[in-house]
Design a protein that fits this description.
Layout lengths: L9 E13 L4 E12 L5 E5 L3 E9 L5 E3 L1 E5 L4 E5 L7 E12 L6 E8 L5 E8 L20 E8 L4 E4 L3 E7 L2 E6 L12 E4 L2 E2 L3 E3 L2 E7 L8 H18 L8 E6 L6 E2 L4 E5 L12 H17 L6 E3 L5 H19 L5 H16 L14 H5 L4 H18 L1 H15 L2 E3 L1 H12 L3 H10 L4 E8 L2 E8 L25 E9 L2 E9 L3 E5 L4 E5 L9 E4 L1 H8 L7 H16 L5 H8 L8 H17 L5 H19 L9 H15 L5 H15 L10 H10 L3 H12 L4 H11 L5 H9 L11 H10 L4 H18 L4 H6 L8 H13 L8 H27 L3
Parallel strand pairs: 1-11, 18-19, 19-21, 22-23, 24-30
Antiparallel strand pairs: 1-2, 2-8, 3-7, 4-5, 4-8, 6-7, 9-10, 11-14, 12-15, 13-14, 16-18, 17-18, 20-21, 24-25, 25-28, 26-27, 26-29
Helix pairs in contact: 1-2, 1-3, 2-3, 3-6, 4-6, 4-11, 4-13, 6-7, 7-8, 11-12, 11-13, 13-15, 14-15, 15-17, 16-17, 17-19, 18-19, 21-22, 24-25
Bound molecules: ligand BES and zinc ion.
Length: 857
C-alpha cells in the first residue's frame, strides 16, 4: 500500500470545525466533528495530521456505538492513527477530535503574519495556506483532493478582531470572553481549499455581482490601495460566469491581502488570499507591469473558483488541470478586460520560459507521477503553469474558441462538486469537437519536450520537418540524475499554421504535422512564409537562412508575437549551438525600430545572458553593443511621455531606460535619471509611473553608499507594496562589495520578510557584480535559510545558480549539492544544473567568437 495515500475504508462527508486561535500565545485549540461513512468494519482509522497534538478522539460507528480511540501520530508519514478496541460497525458514523497546535511562522498550515500598523506598532494576525498538503497542520483530516466534504467552520476569537472564512457569517455571538463567528456550510470541496484569516482587518464596500458580494480585505490603513483589485475581481467574475456558463459556486467572494504569504495567491473558495503586491496597488502610481501583475493574479484565482474548486483533479499528478487552466483563463479574462494590454502577446514571455525548461533533457511531461507531498510541491512549476496554458491555447486555437468553450462547459457541468482527470477533459472536448483529442494532445501532456519545426525551401518545395528540440545533445550526468531511460521516438501532432506570401498576397494554411516530414509545392511567385502564424504553437521554428532573411526583410508585416517568436527561437537555436553567435547578434541589429515591449524583453534577456558569460575585459564593449541596439528606440520615444501615448509604449520607455541605465551603463542616461528622480522626489516634476522604477534601478546601479542607505530607508517606509519592491530589489543592484554583503546579510537577519528574501537572494546569484559573493553567502547560510524560509523558498532561491556561469562556479555548484545531498523535489535541481550547463557550454563554444564580435564596439 502507498504510505502516502489514505485508505477509503472510512470516508468523510462533513467537518464541523471549531477553532480558537490566540494571537498572544501564538497557539490554537480546536474541536471537530466529522461525519463519515464507514465502508468496512475496520478497527483503525487513518487520517492526516502533522505538528498538532490530539487530546481526545471518540468514534461513533454505524450502530451508534461510541468508542474512545487510542491516537498515535506518525510525524514522518504526516498521519494520525485512531486505534479502536472493537471493529466499527459499517454505515454512517461520526468522529469527535479535540486538538491543539501553534501558529507557526513558516507561512503554511495555520500561521501567523506580523506587520506594522499605521502608527508603527507591530501587530499579529493569523492566516492559512493549505495547498498542497498543509490542511493537516491545522486540523486532522483526509487531506487528499478526492476526499471532498462540506466544511462548517466556527472561529472563537478575541472580540477586538474579525475573521473571514470561505463562506458568509451565519451567526456572530458572544461566549464567555470570545466572539464566536459561525460560518455557513461550504459546498462540497477539497481540504486544501479551506481557509480562515483572523486579525484587525478592514474591508471595502462590497460590489454585487448578481447575488455575490465582492470585497477586498487588508490590514488597517491600506484600503486606499484596494480599488484596482476590486475592479478586476468584479470584471473577471462576470467574465467567468459567462464563459463557464455556470454561476459562481460560493455565497460571497472576499479577496484578502496578507502581509506574509509564501506564494503569490491562493484560490480558497470565497476567501482568496494574496501577498500584498499581488492585490493592493495605487493605480495612479503604478507601472503597467505592476498593474498587470495584480490583474493577472486576481483573474487567475477567480478562474480557479470553477477550475479547481468546483471541479478538482483527483490527485496531484493532475494539478495541471487546475493551474494550466487558471493561467489560460487568466489571459482570456484580462484580455477581455483590457484589450489594449495585448495580453496574449505578453504571454509570449511565459511561453518562452516554458520552452526553455522543456528543452532540457531533465524536463518532465506536464502530467507526471506524484506520491509524496514534496513531489506534489515540485509540480507547481513552469511546465504545469506555462507549458500547460500554452498547449491549452494551442488546442483552443486549433479547435476554435467556441467549440473549445463548449467542451469546457460540458466538462465542468458534468464533474461539478466532484473530481476529474485529464481523460475526462479530453472526452468532453472530443464530444464538443468531434475530433480525436487524445491523439492530438497526449504527446503534449504525457511526453516530455516539444518539437522544433524546421522550414526549408528545397527545389520547388517547402519542406517541414519535426524533431525534438534540446539544448544539449546528451543528458547531463551528475550524482542525482536518474539513469537515462530509453527516450521514446519524439513525434508530436503539431498544429502548424503557415502564412505564405506569394505574388504580393498572403494566405493562411493549416497543417497538422503528424509525420517527421511533409512537403508542399511552393506557390507561384513565392516570397516568404511564417510558420506558427499567430504564434500560438508550443514549438520552435527553425527557418533556413534564406527564409529567415526574407522575414527579417519584412518585419513590419509580422505580428508582434511573430517577431517575438522569431527572436526567441533564434536565440534558443544559438544557445543550442545551431546558430553562430555572430549571426544572432547581427539579427538583433535588425530590431532597432522595434516598438513592442515583449520583443524587447526577449532581445534584452539574451543580452543579459551574454553579460553573464563574457570575460570582464569585454564588458565595456558589451555595454556599447547594448547602447547601439537600444539607444535609437529610446531616442525615438523620448525620455518623457507624450500626449495620448498608450500604456504599453510608456512601459517600453521604462524598460529601455532601465536597460540603458544598467546593462548599457549609459552615463548620459544615468545622469538624466538622477535629474528626473530628483525632480520627482522634490515634487517639482512628477515622473511617469512606468519610468520611475527604471530610474530607481539605474540610480542603484550607478549608486554609492549614501544612495544605498537612502533606498534602504525608502524600502522600510514605503507606502505601497510596489514601492517597497522597487526599493528592495534596487538594493541588489549596488555594485560595491560592501553593499552586496549588507544586502545579503539582510536576507537572513529579519530585515527582509521571509516571503521575499529567497527571491532577493536569487536575484543576487544572477547578477554579475554580486554572484560570487552571493554564492559564498548562500553556501554558508544554507541551513539557516532552510530553517527561516517558507517551504518553496530554497527551491526558488536555488534557481539563481543558473546565473553562476563560469566553469569554476559550475563545478563548485555541483560539489556543493552533491556533498550536501540536497534534493529540491522532483527534477528541480537537475533542471537548474542543466540550465547552468547550457550557459557554460555556450560560453565555452562561443566565447572567442563573442569576444571577436564585440571588438568592433
Ligand atoms: N494554487 C496556487 C497557489 C499555490 C502555489 C499553492 C503553489 C501551493 C503551491 C495559485 O492559484 C497560484 O497559481 N498562484 C500563483 C499566481 C498565479 C497568478 C500564477 C503564485 O502563487 O505564484
Ligand atoms: Zn493557480
Amino acid at each position: 500500500m502507498d504510505p502516502y495515500r489514505l485508505p477509503r475504508t472510512v470516508v468523510p462527508s462533513r467537518y464541523d470545525i471549531r477553532l480558537e486561535p490566540d494571537l498572544t500565545t501564538l497557539t490554537f485549540s480546536g474541536v471537530e466533528t466529522i461525519a463519515v461513512t464507514i465502508a468496512e468494519p475496520v478497527s483503525e482509522i487513518l487520517m492526516n495530521a502533522v505538528e498538532i497534538a490530539v487530546d481526545e478522539a471518540v468514534v461513533t460507528d454505524g450502530r451508534g456505538r461510541e468508542q474512545r480511540a487510542t491516537v498515535t501520530l506518525d510525524e514522518g508519514a504526516e498521519r494520525c492513527r485512531l486505534a479502536l478496541a472493537e471493529p466499527l460497525a459499517t454505515g454512517a458514523g461520526r468522529l469527535r477530535i479535540v486538538f491543539r497546535g501553534t501558529l507557526n511562522d513558516k507561512l503554511r498550515g495555520f500561521y501567523r503574519s506580523v506587520y506594522k500598523d499605521p502608527s508603527g506598532v507591530s501587530r499579529t494576525m493569523a492566516a492559512t495556506q493549505f495547498e498542497a498538503t498543509d490542511a493537516r497542520r491545522a486540523f486532522p483530516c483526509w487531506d487528499e483532493p478526492a476526499f471532498k466534504a462540506v466544511f462548517a467552520v466556527t472561529l472563537a476569537i478575541d472580540p477586538a478582531l474579525t475573521a473571514v472564512s470561505n463562506t458568509r457569517i451565519a451567526s456572530d455571538t458572544r461566549e464567555g470572553g470570545r466572539r464566536v463567528l459561525r460560518f455557513a456550510d461550504s459546498i462540497v470541496m477539497s481540504t486544501y481549499l479551506v481557509a480562515f484569516v483572523v486579525g484587525e482587518l478592514e474591508h471595502t464596500v462590497p460590489t454585487p455581482v448578481g447575488p455575490t458580494p465582492v470585497s477586498i480585505w487588508c490590514v488597517p490603513g491600506k484600503k486606499r490601495l484596494a480599488a484596482f483589485g476590486q475592479e478586476i475581481a468584479v470584471a473577471s467574475l462576470r467574465y467567468f460566469e459567462d464563459y463557464y456558463g455556470l454561476p459562481y459556486p460560493g455565497d460571497k467572494l472576499d479577496l484578502l491581502a496578507i502581509p506574509d504569504f509564501a506564494a503569490g495567491a491562493m484560490e480558497n473558495l470565497g476567501a482568496i488570499t494574496f501577498r500584498e503586491t499581488a492585490l493592493l496597488v495605487d493605480e495612479q502610481a503604478a507601472s503597467h507591469a505592476e498593474l498587470q501583475r495584480v490583474a493577472d493574479v486576481v483573474a487567475h484565482e477567480n478562474a480557479h473558483m470553477w477550475f479547481g474548486d468546483l471541479v478538482t483533479m483527483s490527485w496531484w499528478n493532475g494539478i495541471w488541470l487546475n493551474e494550466a487552466f487558471a493561467t489560460f483563463m487568466e489571459m482570456l479574462a484580462v484580455d477581455a478586460w483590457k484589450p489594449e494590454w495585448q495580453r496574449w502577446v505578453a504571454f509570449g514571455v511565459s511561453r518562452a520560459a516554458a520552452l526553455s525548461v522543456d528543452g532540457l533533457h531533465s524536463t518532465r511531461p506536464i502530467e507526471f507521477p506524484v506520491r509524496a507531498p514534496r513531489e506534489a510541491d515540485a509540480m507547481f512549476d513552469v511546465l504545469t503553469y506555462e507549458k500547460g496554458a500554452s498547449v491549452l491555447r494551442m488546442l483552443e486555437q486549433y479547435l476554435g474558441p467556441e467549440v473549445f468553450r463548449t467542451g469546457v462547459r460540458e466538462y465542468l457541468t458534468r464533474h461539478r462538486f466532484a473530481n476529474a482527470d485529464t481523460v475526462d477533459l479530453w472526452a468532453a472536448l472530443g464530444r464538443a469537437s468531434q475530433q480525436p483529442i487524445p491523439a492530438v494532445m497526449d504527446g503534449w501532456i504525457f511526453a516530455p519536450g516539444y518539437p522544433v519545426v524546421s522550414v526549408a525551401v528545397e527545389g520547388r518545395e517547402l519542406v517541414l520537418r519535426q524533431q525534438r528540440f534540446t539544448y544539449l545533445t546528451e543528458p547531463l550526468r551528475w550524482f542525482g540524475a536518474a539513469p537515462a531511460a530509453a527516450t521514446p521516438p519524439a513525434r508530436w501532432q503539431v498544429p502548424v499554421q503557415l502564412r505564405v506570401s506569394a505574388e504580393g498576397r498572403e494566405s493562411v494554411e493549416r497543417v497538422l504535422l503528424t509525420e517527421p516530414e511533409v512537403r508542399r509545392p511552393l506557390p507561384a511567385g513565392f516570397e516568404s512564409v511564417v510558420a506558427n502564424e499567430g504564434g500560438h504553437g508550443f514549438y520552435r521554428v527553425r527557418y533556413d537562412e534564406g527564409l529567415r532573411e526574407r522575414l527579417l526583410g519584412r518585419l513590419a508585416s509580422l505580428g508582434a508575437i511573430e517577431r517575438f517568436n522569431l527572436v526567441n527561437d533564434a536565440w534558443a537555436v544559438t544557445a543550442a549551438g545551431l546558430m553562430p553567435i555572430a549571426q544572432y547578434l547581427d539579427l538583433t541589429a535588425r530590431f532597432r525600430d522595434e516598438r513592442d515591449k515583449n520583443v524587447w524583453s526577449v532581445l534584452l534577456g539574451s543580452l543579459h545572458a551574454l553579460n553573464r558569460i563574457i570575460a570582464p575585459a569585454d564588458r565595456p564593449r558589451l555595454e556599447a553593443l547594448v547602447r547601439d541596439r537600444t539607444a535609437p528606440a529610446l531616442a525615438a520615444l523620448g525620455v518623457t511621455p507624450r500626449e495620448g501615448e498608450d500604456e504599453l509604449t510608456r512601459q517600453l520607455r521604462g524598460d529601455l531606460i532601465r536597460a540603458l541605465g544598467t546593462l548599457g551603463n549609459d552615463h548620459a542616461v544615468q545622469a538624466r535619471a538622477a535629474e528626473l528622480y530628483a525632480g520627482h522626489e522634490g515634487g517639482a516634476a512628477p515622473v511617469d509611473p512606468n519610468v520611475l522604477p527604471a530610474l530607481i534601478a539605474t540610480l542603484a546601479h550607478a549608486g554609492d553608499e549614501g544612495r544605498y542607505h537612502e533606498f534602504f530607508e525608502r524600502f522600510r517606509t514605503a507606502t505601497t507594496p510596489q514601492e517597497e519592491q522597487r526599493y528592495l530589489y534596487a538594493l541588489t543592484m549596488f555594485p560595491q562589495p560592501l553593499l552586496v554583503e549588507q544586502t545579503l546579510a539582510r536576507t537572513v537577519n529579519g530585515e527582509i520578510r521571509t516571503q521575499d528574501a529567497p527571491f532577493v537572494a536569487r536575484s543576487m546569484l544572477m547578477l554579475v557584480h554580486a554572484r560570487e559573493q552571493a554564492w559564498a553567502f548562500v553556501k554558508k547560510q544554507w541551513d539557516t535559510m532552510d530553517r527561516l524560509y517558507p517551504k518553496h523558498g530554497l527551491r526558488r532561491m536555488a534557481e539563481g545558480v543558473i546565473g553562476l556561469v563560469t566553469p569554476e562556479l559550475e563545478a563548485d555548484v555541483h560539489r556543493f549539492f552533491q556533498e550536501r545531498k540536497i534534493d529540491l523535489g522532483g527534477k528541480t535541481l537537475e533542471q537548474y544544473l542543466e540550465q547552468l550547463r547550457v550557459a557554460v557550454a555556450l560560453r565555452e563554444r562561443e566565447g572567442a567568437a563573442l569576444s571577436a564580435y564585440l571588438a568592433r564596439f
